[in-house]
Amino acid sequence: MTDTAECAHTSPYVEKRCEPAALRFLFYPLETTMSFASVLVLNGPNLNLLGTREPAIYGSETLDDVARLCRDAGERLDLSIDFCQSNAEHQLIDWLHAARTKVDGIVINPAAYTHTSVAIADALTAIEKPVIEVHISNVHRREAFRHHSYVSAVADAIIVGCGTQGYVLALERMVTILKNRAAK
Ligand code: DQA
Is the sign of the CA dihedral 72, 162, 37, 179 positive or negative? Predict the structure, then answer.
């Protein structure tokens, strides 16, 4: 995703797919040519602290570990993965806008913006791609303010409480959604 090359400057959790396309081709020529589809995996605020943040709730894996899980799943499922994280709402929205013409689907853990952001829900609607919402914790077993999601109404699927495996499940489901769409 050329447009999200910018995210390399703002997030340490930007995977290879956010590199400029030309560089990507040099380093990952086979993947670039052979991927079945391209998925943006977007992470919201405070997820950069995974591993040290409330481990009783979110576990001990870091966001780097999650990125690795997604990359491995992407290789298995023949998906190219852009993995990004930002604490800033406007940055997440800008990446979604950039993804509009560049990716086939979005997996998003909007973190706390889940419960507050009409703007992120609007951006997800605007880009007209399949969306899967992921939460590491079971938000419905937690505080009442976490029970409402602005994103769920625009998501094709929601995965909660499966830990970091939820990202892998989301990528697997995304393949099914994309294949079903392609078959129509
Ligand atoms: C979260 C749940 C949100 O309520 C919370 O604000 C997060 C993480 C999850 O993955 O469980 O930051 O999205």
Answer: positive
Q: What is the DSSP letter of 130?
A: -
Q: How do strand 131-135 and strand 105-109 relate by DSSP bridges? A: parallel
Number of alpha helices (DSSP H) and beta strands (DSSP E) in the chain:
8, 5
Amino acid, single-letter form, for residue 30: L
Helix (H, G, I), strand (E, B) or coil at 128: coil
- pTM value is 0.86
Q: 7's torsion region: left (phi>0), alpha (psi -120 to 50) or beta?
A: alpha
Q: Which residues are catalytic?
A: 58, 135
Query: Ligand 1: distance of its center to the CA of 29 in Å?
Result: 35
Q: Does the beta carbon of 106 sit less than 6 angstroms from any atom of ligand 1?
A: no
pLDDT, tens digit, for every residue of 11-68? 444 443 343 333 444 444 444 456 889 999 999 999 999 999 999 999 999 999 999 9
Six token digits for residue 63:
């966001």
Residue 134: beta bridge partners? Answer: 159
Q: Tell me the H-state helices in the chain.
A: 7-10, 21-27, 29-34, 55-58, 63-77, 89-99, 118-127, 165-183
